[in-house]
Amino acid sequence: MTPARQDLDTSLAEMRSEMIKSRPFHAMVIIGGMEGVFKELSIFERENPDALVLPIASTGAAAEIVYANGHYDKELANDLTYASLFRRRLLQV
């Protein structure tokens, strides 16, 4: 929990930071999303530099943009069998 702030941007920034810094993470899965995903990804990569990032481009929105702007496996753009994809990718971590 983070305390409420008068300013929405400050409140969201604090919530994102607390959420991502709460523990070490081994992976981040991005499904769809909006502009906040880019801020969260930036914090995540800074706090977990060796962690796996899986932008599932087939879900569109921010995930597709993250995928397009990075160097990710083609499987993340085309595979629609998400349960199998997550098993293959996340059980390796």
Describe the overall structure.
- With 93 residues, the chain is mainly alpha-helical.
- The protein has helices spanning 8-21, 36-47, 61-68, 75-78, 82-90, and strands at 27-31, 52-56.
- Helix 1 runs parallel beside helix 2.
- It starts with 7 loop residues before the first helix and ends with a helix.
- The mean pLDDT is 94.
Which term fits the overall shape? globular
Average pLDDT score = 94
Largest sheet: 2 strands, parallel
How many strands in all?
Answer: 2
Helical percent range?
40-55%
What is the ordering of alpha helices and beta strands? HEHEHHH
Task: State the main characteristics.
single chain; 93 residues; mainly alpha; two-stranded parallel sheet; 2 strands
Quick summary:
This protein is mainly α and 93 residues long. The chain has helices at residues 8-21, 36-47, 61-68, 75-78, 82-90, and strands at residues 27-31, 52-56.
Show the helix and strand layout:
Layout: H1 8-21, E1 27-31, H2 36-47, E2 52-56, H3 61-68, H4 75-78, H5 82-90
Helix pairs in contact: 1-2
